[in-house]
């Protein structure tokens, strides 16, 4: 069968079988029971099918299969089919989505993924470390260069723009790309370490592709995209473009408007996991379960699983973000394993000895965890880690 | 001041002034209090400003102004600024959004709007009537032509594709446009009445513009767009394109994932009203307050007001949809006035004498309301209306 299967969370009670049947018909052939036999034969391959109905007394869970004959194989058509009108129809949340293999293969998945990004930077055996520019709004290119240099020298693997830094006269996109490349080339010469910089690709939708191609030409090493301010299909187009071919980092900005309610919208697993991976995100940021801006741990694990489980696509890097400091590294590795990116803003820049030391402290914490040392033991010989633990605490 | 002002609904209690200040700083310059004077001077024009904080004991309402120096003047940048990270930050809903006039003028608004669409069809003095194809999935072009002809002959002003009908081998986009034009030209010759057909513009984002330009060339009269499956900026690009210039009808598919919760996401007024109008939707569909798939009446009125109130843009047509039958026309006119589109699917096709009679019954109901007649009185001389009232009821 060629189809897309969607699972919905609805309130318990009532005739859920009928509700599921109404969904399966209403979003496909419209009606069924009273159709003439000939029309039933004609429409059979277009009819939605109820796969499963559960009611545990608290929640109902409905699973419906939509034949792929009904929609073009693009994310807008699939979203409109499985959660278009239905998103407006009372209390209902889309909590799972899966494609039959032929449909899945219509989508690119990540061009690089975990393995490809590891190859770009030559790091294979540990979680990566990423840091974020701090307070760049209103600042100029000198500040940009200084911050990038400090973070990269400290030992991070990736640096990203803040998602609220757009193209602007003080730090224009093109200049960030060019100077970013120069600084990172210099760091590589000085330290032997290759670092990627994800520049925020922003502006009008129909300019993004050309802008990304130019960025590639100018030596960009990665792209940041506020995908939910655009559309998943835009991410896919960027990922598929043979003239771009840069790692794409998907930022979760605006996604909370779709995912935050328990009763409505789309689950984090589907939106940040299943769909971002299919559309081609190489790295996916999401709120870690540890900070102020936090997701429930089971939701973060579900995202990470959807990004890395065995499918037709390369795995994408999970990037649990927000509230991350070196003392959390043991917990991060326990929760997300080695194939994750440890992403910190304040946890790098807020280090008492500066951003370079902040980055170094993360690397020291990772080394400790991977050699089964306690952070506090490792900190005896590592001043940056010691200062970080004093600043933010941390056991393990 | 050049800025965007956003209003948020949050839970009552706690230090809401501090919360608002954290938003205003966190989404702009990052920090403030401890900055050196020189840096404060440099950053002053970038700093977010708390405009208002209310707490009525049930809800907190925070209003924050974001200087437009911080973002490029496109909807993705504005959405990411005002509700990017913030959408992920606990219980919070974006309930209002306004642009200073210079920012507002960066957006096109509708190319046609209410007046332009009235001119296209030569109808100035009454609500318009729209109907929807019924159950076209799995059906061919003959069925398409028959349905279009019946609906148009009955007296509707617009006919739209169902939003779940995508480009497909049985009724390809291009054929729907060409045959749609032929049928509507024929109806105009036969009846003197011009009818618009909104074809569902679907497929990959980066193909939409060219596809819409071709549709225009082939004689399309209007476009339907599942804008929330793409992105608001895509709608804007289509509205601005000088080679398209067709009325664009925005469908609310998927929008419920953003709007349905009382505590999270974005209000219907902002998403379906303010933003769709700024981006250039000429007609905006939303669930009426009367049917099964319904919005609260105050939400539908808020959408309609945002679409029609005096701004720098042309007004867009509100299109309350779902659950509409001729008996509801008095209520619709009372709630939405003359400048609205009365949109019916089942209320046209389910008429006991067929779709043409169903369309006619709507026109008869409108005539009655506009001449201050009771529907039941008018129905004495109008058999189509009489049959509709018998089928679905209706007072007034
Ligand atoms: Mg950020
Ligand atoms: Mg529909």
Describe the protein.
The structure is a homodimer of 396-residue chains. Chain A is α/β, with parallel strands linked by helices. Chain A folds into two domains: 3-104, RuBisCO large subunit, N-terminal domain (Alpha-Beta Plaits), CATH 3.30.70.150; 113-392, Alpha-Beta Barrel (TIM Barrel). Helix content of chain A is 42%, strand content 17%. Chain A has helices at 16-26, 37-43, 75-83, 101-104, 113-121, 141-153, 173-191, 205-217, 227-230, 232-240, 256-259, 268-279, 297-308, 329-336, 346-349, 355-370, 375-378, 383-392, and strands at 3-11, 49-55, 59-67, 93-99, 128-132, 158-160, 196-200, 222-225, 248-250, 265-266, 283-287, 317-321, 341-344. In chain A, the strands form two sheets. The first copy, chain A, has an eight-stranded parallel β-sheet with strand order 12-11-9-8-7-6-5-13, with helices on both faces. The longest helix of chain A is centred in the middle third of the chain and has 19 residues, at 173-191. The model of chain A has no long low-confidence stretch (mean pLDDT 95). At the A-B interface, helix 3, helix 8, helix 10, helix 11 and strand 10 of A face helix 3, helix 8, helix 10, helix 11 and strand 10 of B. One magnesium ion binds next to loops of chain B. Chains A, B: Residues 6-86 form the Ribulose bisphosphate carboxylase large subunit ferrodoxin-like N-terminal domain. Chains A, B: Pfam families: RuBisCO_large, RuBisCO_large_N. Chains A, B: InterPro entries: Diketo-Methiopentyl-P_enolase, RuBisCO, RuBisCO_lsu_C, RuBisCO_lsu_C_sf, RuBisCO_lsu_fd_N, RuBisCO_lsu_N_sf. Chains A, B: The active site is at 85 (proton acceptor).
